[in-house]
Amino acid sequence: MSSSIAQTVKTVVSRYGGDATRLMDVLIDVQDELGCLSHVTTARIAHTLGVPQVDVEQTVSFYHFFAREPRGKFAVYLNDSVVAEFCGRGEVARAFEEAAGCRFGEVTADGVVGLFHTACIGMSDQEPAALVNGQVFPALTPDKARELVAGMRAGKTVEELKGGRTGDGQNAHPLVRALVHNHIRRRGVMVFDHYQPGEALRKVVAMSSGEVIGVVKAASVRGRGGAGFPTGMKWDFARRAAGDVKYVFCNADEGEPGTFKDRVILTERPQMVIEGMAIAAYAVGAQRGILYVRNEYRYLRSYLEHVLEDMRAQGLLGAAICGQSGFDFDVSLQFGAGAYVCGEESALIESAEGKRGEPRDRPPFPVEKGYLQKPTVVNNVETLCSAVQVMLKGAEWYNRLGTEKSKGTKVLCVSGDCDRPGIYEVEWGFSVNDILQEAGARDVQAVQVGGPSGSCIGPGEFGRVLAYEDLATGGSFIIIGQPRDLLKDVVLNFARFFREESCGSCVPCRALTGMAQVVLERVIAGRGTAEDVERLQSWQKIMRNNRCGLGQTALNPVVSTIRNFRPLYDARLAPGDPRFVPGFDLSAAVKDYEAAVSKG
Amino acid sequence: MASFVRYTLDGKTCLAEEGTQLVAAARDSGVYIPTLCNHPGIPPKGSCRICTVLVNGIPQTACTTKVVEDMNVTTGTPELEAFRKAVVEILFAEGNHLCPSCERSGNCELQALAYRYRVTVPHFPYLFPKRDVEAWHPKLVKDHNRCIQCKRCIRGIHNAEGKALFAFGKRGDKVVINIDPDTSRDIGDELAQQAMDICPVGAILRKGKGFDVPIGRRRYDREPIGSEVKP
Amino acid sequence: MTAKAPRARKIVATTSLAGCFGCHMSLLDIDERILDLIELVEFNKSPIDDIKTFTKECDIGLIEGGCCNDENVHVLTEFRRHCKTLVAFGECALMGGLPALRNFLPLKECLEEAYLNGPTVAGENPGRIIPHDPDIPKILNRVYPCHEVVKIDYFLPGCPPSADLIWDALVALVTGKELEPQYRTFKFD
Question: How do the domains of chain B map onto residue ranges?
């Protein structure tokens, strides 16, 4: 074994106190230094932590961004989401391949460039976008791709590749310096209004924890991640749960394709999110907070560390917050490593404990037994922002916003075929038509509301409103124009996404996501039957018995389009005698043989 | 002193010790709930989903559910039975289950459930995945073609120091169960046998063992799985 | 005798595709009931009476084996055209069976192992030829279960299906009654 591996592992493991539950941090840091996590390295990590090597391997191999082999001096992760494809991702990918001289999934012979596919990286308003050694390169064109590869070959650094440019707002902060743009198209009163850090917290410490929860309950704040669980109730459960130590998690692992609000909020309002965590901590009696951020946003790391440090300095974190003795709470950052399912709260907790992001069985719920088996509140980024404003302006103010059953505002991430993709903070109750109009969308075939796990609706339903009681959404709002091939360009892409992102634990989710792709490809190829379509639809019932939300909704892209766009399926069905299976293609089946026996 | 609770099982009032696993409580009351990833004595995981029942009307896995007072459990609606059959069929189509050449045939829980549900051909596409057979271990063979990723070996088999021998690798439809070269190095025949026995299918085999019970006298040759639970 | 012979005998065709004829052996293993069978049914295209091509439309087609080459596909398609009811019997017909063990390897690798690089090939194939001729069937990229090629009406599992299961199924088909297979006869091996 190389001594540098042993030395690096030793240093990193001791940085985290030899604690095996900090495995994610250990792996991320070791990979940063060594470029990859080879079997030799994982064996060393296992040995140093005193755990079986297979236990380290099971975590490493679960996450997309952990590499077993070097991924090049410049690892290019080009997003392959639906919206990226809409924006010309295919040509950019070809340009990368031609310029680099290797295919996706490979590293060039000189080890300079590695090209990899990756799921939505939270840049749907500025696609096609890629991560290069963790830095974002948005709005790519084939020319830019060629230019980037030339720069890499010319020995430039990633900073130099960015060309000294930055995006707007805090993207230009010296600790961010990202090419990313915020595209805040509509500022609402919750997240993007005037905000003074600490104001809400000072108000909160003058109240009892019960009173704080009372206000959140009276405002009927509901979770903004998509499921809409009442926040006050969640806090109350955690407050009542027995435990000497309690935790508050902020879930910033937005992985639903088409979602990017957490990125913009963490860029422009990080103090608000952290203040929200502190309020939650005060309410439930928690001492520690973990801000779990998806790996794709690691370019915000130094900036977020700085914000935390700054808030500590202002007495908004740390011991005796706002001078309130006994109110001790601090927040640390935890990064993921590329797994959509970690957005599910119990999977997020598992991941933070250094394990595979597999959702847990419930009960017990995280509020009773969460992180390290202690009571844990997990809240979405936007939910915490709502909590801050509710504490500042009161439940009555909050209740005046939105609809009967959905109070407050929602930050929408609009992307796809429209003139003004970006962030729209609207009151609940806006109709799909309202949004389409504001975003400058014409000739719309369909809208994917709530991302692939949501539903795909056609023009007949554009009068519906965004609200928990009608179209619930975590924020993703993908506009699909008329010219798109809905089945091939959208549904198939989503089907692949779910196949790749299933954790693999529950049988129906692990197997049916792949089988759905097989059947869907057959239908798209014109070799499917009506029976195939019925079959796909009938699988939804089976999927409902999966453990987590991902598994339960993984066939939604297929099923909701069969429901709402059935003619598109019917038009592709194979004609002919039902006694013969059109899916069987004799001429394709003998091709391998013909190739094997052909001369030369 | 254990406290007993009253709960309803398929319309009948039953008694069980509070906190008993629903699968076990139902069995004691003469109701068989099929299981695959569940195994007595190891922590339940709820991953195969076949033991899904309705608890107060909501689908829940019976292996991860503990009996509490006034719980209302329904185990055998036509929908639940159809779901269970579907799970068995999915597993057959997902992996490479060539029963005629399998050492575990006749003693295999997956096969026995297929018999119970009279599965002939799955209503799901065969995937014929390319999977490995690992034979490097001195005592064990791991045939990934047959593995149903139930994790029973992961949860149930540990070496003398209490360390795991098996763990998951990868994710989604690529998950595999790996053997740790280090913790499994010095295992004896007894632990190897335990590993083979804990596997519901023929994915973990002791080298040199297999086909040692003649056809006709194997566990599921005469009586269906679940017949040991008498109403 | 367990079933009364109907006046008009049902016409049965059978074939073995990529199988080992074990299922046909099991069919013959019904012992003295074979005499009843002859009263119940009339065989058309089948290795049992050696009729090579369909001479009339059949009521029941029994298929052993899956499809590993284009000739299997051709025969199976013919059976589907000429038989009202098609029954796949045996593991190979149902899921490819042992021939499907090659489904996890590229065909090229299998052919090269068999004809070029395998230990039994040494010196015997100086021209390094993988057999190919318009007169021999083309091998498919993988072995296909019958229901992936044509619609199959009924499936009888087993390797081979027990004689009792085959008998029960034939009686059920001839008499139009539903088959409820006994546990003892319903096996995958």
Answer: 4-75, 85-207
